[in-house]
Amino acid sequence: MTQLNQEQTFKQFMKQYRKQPNRFGDLANDMAADRSFTKKNTRNGILDYLDSVGACDDAIDIFKELWLEYESEIRIEKYKAFRRVSK
What we know:
CATH class: Mainly Alpha
Radius of gyration: 14 Å
Structural class: mainly alpha
CATH topology: DNA polymerase, domain 1
Order of helices and strands: HHHH
Mean pLDDT: 89
CATH architecture: Orthogonal Bundle
Distance between the termini: 27 Å
């Protein structure tokens, strides 16, 4: 896992998976290759986009799994930033 910052988008978060030969890498590579991939950085915005391009159920499930990881890492970084400020 790469270290995130609070401003990092999901698409930026996915770059860490691009060379992995697994389902996460498949999604990351598909996102990188899709020049019209949504600029929205919300779970629902990306789900709407995946639905609009006819993404398969597996791709949507993988996205949902990775979105949870993304949110978790963002929360951790926000907490770390809060702790630094409150010292």
